[in-house]
Design goal:
The protein has 582 residues and is of the alpha/beta class. It has three domains: 138 residues, 3-Layer(bba) Sandwich (Glucose Oxidase, domain 1), CATH 3.50.30; 105 residues, Enzyme I, Chain A, domain 2, CATH 1.10.274.10; 250 residues, Phosphoenolpyruvate-binding domains (TIM Barrel, Alpha-Beta Barrel), CATH 3.20.20. It is built from 22 helices and 17 strands. The strands form two sheets. Strands 1-8-7-3-4-5-6-2 form an eight-stranded mixed β-sheet. Strands 10-11-12-13-14-15-16-17 form an eight-stranded parallel β-barrel, surrounded by six helices. A hairpin with a 5-residue loop joins strand 9 and strand 10. The termini are far apart.
């Protein structure tokens, strides 16, 4: 064991709940570099192409082996990586660099991988930004095989092995087990986590990553406490350092005082009891003590997200982001590819309602095969429904795919960034056209499918009384509604403190939208981050909101609040908050 570092406190992002107490195992991952070596002749080019194809083939076989022993949701994560390895665009770009630029296979893979990582990593949407980890993971895997290295994690750091239960899952022993391990790394790929013997791993801390990274999803599935985004401070941690990690608050303590460790041992006991209690609520309906039923759904983007949503007791899908399917494709997904994707989600939902949002790209979300014009202000520009109404060919393909899938479950269509009645009418006209085409082709669909709109543009919130006459339901997207109402870029470090969903102007708009939905007899749900904020639950209930959609882990927390309150209390909270506006 190395000499302990001095005590240090770090703040990251809690990505998998739980308190972990153990010794650090630092994973030093080797960083591959561009060699700059060029190929001498066509024979060398042919050899590198064969070498590349062999590495890809071995990578796919390796992933298949991991998938065979993994739980369904984890296997789905790895299947995405297999699809990426088989992506003709990715393969074509690598081969082009080998053939045209005379680069060796390793350099070609690194350059293409890094370019794609930059594309995804620069996006504002956390879910899509996290997909850069998949690109990095397959790049590393192929590179290992190009270099004839063994599988598993690259770099040093002894891999934790051993038996016994994990300290974070027991009944809260009074003593800390020194054999419990917390992995420390720049980042951890999902396949690395799957391949590890984690019998003594109680947590992990990473310099990069976020809540929606696949590694974080795997950690939650396996009950491992995790903190991501710890930054450069993580570099000072050495093997053997005592660590306390709180996967809920994102706090990471390095070499804390013994009395602090004991405090966290007690806190871990309490947290485990709370976790078990929340898990017991999975099958309970969210009904207030005076009988008001509330519908709690999940926001998802993939089939593995659907699995996680069901684990947390989601009553359906309030928001299926379709852009990830497009982002992971090398060209526009065909109607058949989209149909299969939507169908699989609906089948897995097993009769629970699924709301599918049409393509929401633009702003920070670009498609490499669909160049968008450079704009000075892309978040106020050519994006979301504006693209769909301009590119009717793309929109019709997506609408037809969703309609075809609608016969496999309870399906609804959600239109993003609607700002006027005219836009809604244009979209409904194209919907009718899609239905007519399917009728001519004698393909079944739900003729009565409901079409709703996102209320995320202030003009839509202000005109909710008119839009309610033509929409089947509203879904309030608080993230953009807040951003546009307050003119605050929430990703801008200098002003992000001004981003406040509890701002009086935002709350007035939300309440007005809910009231207009009630007056016009259409459902109103909320799918923005505010829906999953426990501090907002009573306020939103008091406003009249009955349909909440959120990230799956927030469901039991919000449900517990609902089960313990009544509408008299909720209305009082709402009245007090709204009176504070004036």
């Amino acid at each position: 064991m190395t000499m302990m570092n001095i005590a240090n406190n770090l703040q990251g992002m809690g990505v998998s709940p739980g308190i972990a107490i153990g010794r650090a195992c630092v994973i030093r991952q080797a960083q591959a570099g561009i060699t700059g070596e060029t190929l001498a002749d066509e024979a060398a080019v042919a050899g590198e192409i064969a070498h590349f194809h062999d590495a890809v083939g071995r990578s796919i076989r390796e992933l298949r082996v991991l998938m065979a022993g993994a739980e369904t949701a984890v296997a789905d994560i790895l299947e995405v990586q297999v699809e990426l390895l088989q992506d003709p665009m990715w393969e074509g770009e690598v081969l082009s660099k080998i053939e045209a630029d005379k680069k060796n296979a390793g350099d070609a893979v690194l350059e293409v991988t890094r370019a794609l990582m930059n594309t995804f990593g620069s996006m504002e949407d956390e879910y899509l930004r996290a997909r850069a980890a998949d690109i990095e993971d397959i790049g590393k895997r192929v590179m290992r095989h190009l270099r004839n290295e063994n599988g598993g994690m690259a770099g040093g750091g002894a891999m934790p092995v051993g038996g016994g239960g994990r300290g974070s899952e027991g009944d809260g022993a009074n003593a800390v087990d020194d054999s419990d391990t917390i992995l420390v790394a720049t980042d951890l790929s999902p396949s690395d986590l799957i391949a590890l013997d984690i019998s003594r791993v109680v947590g992990f801390a990473t310099r990069a990553g976020g809540k929606t990274s696949h590694a974080s999803i795997v950690a939650r599935l396996r009950g491992i406490a995790a903190v991501a985004g710890c930054g450069e401070g993580l570099d000072a941690i050495a093997d053997g350092d005592m660590m306390v990690l709180d996967g809920t608050t994102g706090i990471l303590l390095v070499n804390p005082a013994p009395e602090v460790v004991e405090q966290y041992v007690e806190k871990r006991k309490e947290q485990l009891a709370t976790t078990r209690f929340l898990q017991s609520l999975k099958s309970k309906e969210a009904i207030t003590t005076d009988g008001t039923a509330v519908h709690l759904s999940a926001n998802i983007g993939s089939i593995e997200d659907m699995e996680q949503a069901l684990e947390y007791g989601a009553q359906g899908v309030g928001l299926l982001r379709t852009e990830l399917l497009f982002m992971q494709s090398n060209s526009l997904p065909t109607e058949e590819e989209q149909f299969i994707f939507y169908k699989n989600i609906l089948v897995r939902a097993a009769g629970r309602p699924v709301t599918i949002r049409t393509l929401d790209i633009g702003g920070d979300k670009a498609l490499p095969y669909l160049p968008l014009p450079k704009e000075d202000n892309p978040f106020l520009g050519y994006r979301a429904i504006r693209i769909s109404l301009d590119r009717k060919d793309l929109f019709l393909v997506q609408l037809k795919a969703i309609l075809r899938a609608s016969v496999f479950g309870e399906c609804r269509i959600l239109l993003p960034m609607i700002g006027s009645v005219q836009e809604l009418r244009q979209a409904k006209t194209l919907m009718a056209e899609a239905k007519e085409e399917l009728t001519r082709q004698q393909l079944p669909y739900d003729a009565d499918i409901r079409t709703g709109i996102m209320i995320e543009v202030p003009s839509a919130a202000i005109m909710a009384d008119q839009l309610a006459k033509e929409a089947d339901f509203f879904s309030i997207g608080t993230n953009d509604l807040c951003q546009y109402t307050l003119a605050v870029d929430r990703m801008n470090e200098k002003i992000k403190a001004l981003y406040n969903p509890f701002h009086p102007a935002v709350l007035r708009l939300i309440r007005s939208v809910i009231e207009q939905g009630f007056l016009h007899h259409i459902p109103v749900e909320m799918c923005g981050e505010l829906a999953g904020d426990p501090e907002a639950t009573l306020l939103l209930l008091g406003m009249g909101l009955r349909d909440f959609s959120m990230n799956a882990p927030s469901i039991p927390v919000v449900k517990n609040i609902i089960l313990q309150t009544n509408m008299t209390v909720a209305r009082a909270v709402c009245t007090k908050e709204m009176n504070n506006i004036v």
